[in-house]
Amino acid sequence: MRVDLQLHTFDGVDYHSVNARGYVPLLELDDGQRLTEGPAILQYVADQVPEKKLAPAWGTTERYRLIKWLAFISGELHENLGPLFSPVMSGDEKDFHLMCVLDRFQ
């Protein structure tokens, strides 16, 4: 189900009652436990079907490179990418955030 990010509701209830931090993503497992944070969710999903090779195997250098990139995306890029899609941000503000993103690749 989708979270209404404007109203912070999920299935008609305050989303903060589902996730105290109030942000997405969140994955609820079959046993009711909840995982948050994109890198953790992506790795969990990949590990459910290892034969699909959605992520390298645990303990390999390739897996640690995946973790590095997931951390880079969520920690360095994500914060400045969101404003680029904001209808209320000015062109100058968007240019600033774009420069912050591009700067991370140097």
Automatic annotation (TrEMBL):
- Please give the superkingdom of this protein's source: Bacteria
Domain GST N-terminal: from-to ranges: 1-53
Q: Which SUPFAM superfamilies match?
A: Thioredoxin-like
Xref: InterPro entries? Glutathione_S-Trfase_N, Thioredoxin-like_sf
Protein name from the UniProt record: GST N-terminal domain-containing protein
Alphabetical list of Gene3D superfamilies matching this protein: 1.20.1050.10, Glutaredoxin
